[in-house]
């Protein structure tokens, strides 16, 4: 009888634990359209994922499992060049791993994504919890996935967009910043930015210069984007053009 009672208590405790929210306090949030990372914490509940500010309780996003299309996990390697320079030269030859969780979901009739950089101490627990609660199996991302490396397949751009120069020019800056490129030069018909050397796996080591040149045409605007390679030999012309196009299409119709 005592054994039966113990079993019942164990089952009830396990059920209670499985019903509890599981929280993780060390993560960063970005997306496929922006490399900017926001420090966040998040909770996995029985119905979805709640993402909130790490420094408070403000909710940034709520993603319901019912809306989730796909969940993927992947890693990127980064060389410890900065640590090697500052701490010990031997570190320059070693690598560290970044852990990424990509959530693709449907909202307001469109497909969206959230990309979470996970702490190395949390990723196993997160994957296990999502496999158990989401109704989806967490898939493995290819290392060449554009979610992990937005510059995959990128090349210099020479395209025409169906918007006048007055609409295109103000959006070049935010399109560049979304890809981690800081504007250094701005003139009437071109903008140039520079990607400072970084360690993050999605962005490479940086050092690239990107120039956007525009020409007024009838109708629309001709957009030329050229990347001068940096330390990682990555091209950022296509990602910047995609973000510029997205921003143009999101403009309110007058």
Give the DSSP E fraction (strand runs of 2 or more residues).
35-45%
Shape: globular
Radius of gyration, in Å, reads 22 Å
Major sheet: arrangement of strands: 4-3-2-1-7-6-5-8
CATH C-level of the largest domain: Mainly Beta
Give the helix proportion (percent range).
10-25%
The low-pLDDT segments are 1-17, 80-94
What is the CA–CA distance across the termini? 76 Å
CATH H level of the largest domain: which superfamily?
A: Pleckstrin-homology domain (PH domain)/Phosphotyrosine-binding domain (PTB)
Work out the helix count: 5
Number of strands: 13
Q: What structural category do the secondary elements indicate?
A: alpha+beta
Give me the CATH fold name of the largest domain: PH-domain like
Report the biggest beta sheet as strand number plus sense, adding barrel if it closes: 8 strands, mixed
Mean pLDDT: 84
Order of helices and strands: HEEEEEHEEHEEHEEEEH
Number of domains: 2
CATH architecture of the largest domain: Roll
């Amino acid at each position: 009888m005592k054994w039966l009672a113990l079993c019942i208590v164990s089952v009830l405790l396990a059920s209670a634990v499985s019903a509890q929210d599981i929280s993780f306090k060390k993560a960063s949030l970005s997306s496929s359209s922006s490399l900017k990372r926001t420090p966040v914490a998040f909770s996995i509940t029985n119905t979805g994922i709640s993402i909130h500010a790490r420094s408070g309780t403000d909710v940034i996003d709520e993603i319901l499992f019912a809306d989730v299309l796909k969940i993927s996990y992947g890693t990127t390697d980064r060389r410890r060049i900065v640590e090697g320079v500052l701490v010990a030269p031997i570190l320059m030859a070693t690598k560290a791993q970044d852990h990424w969780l990509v959530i693709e979901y449907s909202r307001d009739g469109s497909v969206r994504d959230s990309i979470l950089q996970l702490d190395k101490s949390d990723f196993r627990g997160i994957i296990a919890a999502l496999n158990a609660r989401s109704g989806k199996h967490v898939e493995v991302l290819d290392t060449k996935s554009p979610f992990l490396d937005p510059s995959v397949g990128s090349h210099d751009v020479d395209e025409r967009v169906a918007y006048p120069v007055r609409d295109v020019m103000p959006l070049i800056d935010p399109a560049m910043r979304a890809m981690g490129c800081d504007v250094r030069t701005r003139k009437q018909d071109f903008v140039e930015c520079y990607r400072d050397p970084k360690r993050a796996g999605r962005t490479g080591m940086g050092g690239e210069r990107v120039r956007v040149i525009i020409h007024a045409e009838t109708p629309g605007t001709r957009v030329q984007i050229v990347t001068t390679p940096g330390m990682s030999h990555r091209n950022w012309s296509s990602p910047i053009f995609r973000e510029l196009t997205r921003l143009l299409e999101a403009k309110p119709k007058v």
